[in-house]
Fold this protein.
Amino acid sequence: MAKVIAVVGATGAQGGGLVRAILADKAGGFTARAITRNAGSDKAQALKQLGVEEYFIVQEEGTLRWALSLGVFRTEEAAQARLAALRGQGVRSARVGVRDTTVPKVWLQVKGVDAALQARLKEIARQVEGTELKDCP
């Protein structure tokens, strides 16, 4: 069974990249969960029933407030690919849109790190721009 890494700020540039890197590594033994304040919303429950667990409720003021974000991407091509995958899972109301939000920092603390896990974390850190990997005291 895969170990779960919870990612706060999973729709930001760093957090979203981290989630995608974790999920893309099929041999890594990990899965990622995005943290949301309202996992009981109708849309969140519908997504969960379709097997979609990577989402975040947009809480910033604006036209997208309270919308469910299903990912943040560097290119529209990557966003369209994710949208196509979601359509394949049965998600019908998702759309690609622009969201200009800056997540200042995301922290992830992992305890009990062995050499193999340390190597995987370093690999993930290389894939996510602006990542800094430090040993915890």
Residues 8 and 38 are 14 Å apart (CA to CA). The longest strand covers residues 3-7. The chain has a mean pLDDT of 76. Helices lie at 13-24, 42-49, 76-88, 115-127.
